[in-house]
Amino acid sequence: MSAPSPHLHTQTPQTAGAQLPQVTEPRNPGMPLDLNWVLSAQANTSAIERRAGSIGARRSVKKAYQAAWLVKAVTCIDLTTLSGDDTARRVERLCAKARQPVAPALLEAMGVGPVTTGAVCVYHEMIPAAVAALKGTNIPIAAVSTGFPAGLSPFELRLREIEMSVAAGATEIDIVISRRHVLSGNWQALYDEMAQMRAACGEAHVKAILATGELGSLRNVARASLVCMMAGADFIKTSTGKESVNATLPVSLVMIRAIRDFYERTGIRVGYKPAGGISKAKDALTYLALIKEELGDRWLQPDLFRFGASSLLGDIERQLEHYVTGAYSAGYRHAAN
Ligand SMILES: O=C[C@H](O)COP(=O)(O)O
């Protein structure tokens, strides 16, 4: 077992949750497309894989520190259901979990006040159910619009879908980019598309889903990240959860470095959302360590970091219960999502 990382040993459960001051980053206003900058972005695959491989292996936090980071992770989850058979009832259950993601008795035992997830994330048609179920809370509703997950419906319809989702009550819109613009190196088309989608969002924050598993190379991921940020994305997000390869550490490293580069050159902080296939508490800790090391503590707040996940919360609850009680409860005692 590797030694606990001192870098993560800076929080107790009491400081990890809702007691942290709520901060909200100003929105990314965007900037003109800078093709020289975009084309200068490269990705050294072997160096990236080496660095990504070193994160999970070196980062192991235990006991109270681990519990603190897991509570932090909960506050950064976009609790998601994106299934063809979604119903209002399922969304109501999801929202009930978002309101109270960890059993009050566990939080009390850790000395932590109430926490919520970062947001809930649903399809457009499920927004009204989420609005009703989250009434009286500040939990944002994120909607996947723009012909999710392929993003191949007519462009005008995709823009209209955004407007309809915002009108229905979504305050965050997760858009999907046209992968073909990246695969053909048409950066102007990607920029224009992203800028128009951002404009259609109005006051709602926009997360740009790159669908990195379909972009062909890490260099394309780096360039697409920059173009979306130049066009005003508030967050960049790895995946829809529907590609055959979703969030990975190498892809995350590339996107995080693009965010850092963008911040160093413009002073604007863009958020990061790994999504798809993140279902284990251990993986959540690895992502948090990566963010802390590469971007720093400021990015470890829900306004700049989210997990897109449908089944991560269950495993985190299991680990927190183990921390408090010393035993794992049977799987049937935990919610399915
Ligand atoms: O954006 C969120 C993802 O669709 C969730 O993916 P997941 O179901 O693999 O956790």
From TrEMBL:
* Biased composition regions of type Polar residues, renumbered to the chain: 8-17
Q: What is this protein called?
A: Deoxyribose-phosphate aldolase
Q: Which PANTHER family match?
A: DEOXYRIBOSE-PHOSPHATE ALDOLASE (PTHR10889)
List the catalysed reactions.
2-deoxy-D-ribose 5-phosphate = D-glyceraldehyde 3-phosphate + acetaldehyde
**Recorded E.C. number(s)?**
4.1.2.4
Family named by the database record: Belongs to the DeoC/FbaB aldolase family. DeoC type 2 subfamily.
Q: Give UniProt keywords alphabetically.
A: Lyase, Schiff base
Pathway(s) it belongs to: Carbohydrate degradation; 2-deoxy-D-ribose 1-phosphate degradation; D-glyceraldehyde 3-phosphate and acetaldehyde from 2-deoxy-alpha-D-ribose 1-phosphate: step 2/2
Database matches in Gene3D superfamilies: Aldolase class I (3.20.20.70)
Please give the residue ranges the record annotates as the region Disordered. Answer: 1-27
Gene Ontology terms, MF aspect: deoxyribose-phosphate aldolase activity
Write down the InterPro entries for this protein, in alphabetical order.
Aldolase_TIM (IPR013785), DeoC (IPR011343), DeoC/FbaB/LacD_aldolase (IPR002915)
Please give the superkingdom of this protein's source.
Answer: Bacteria
Q: Which Pfam families match?
A: DeoC
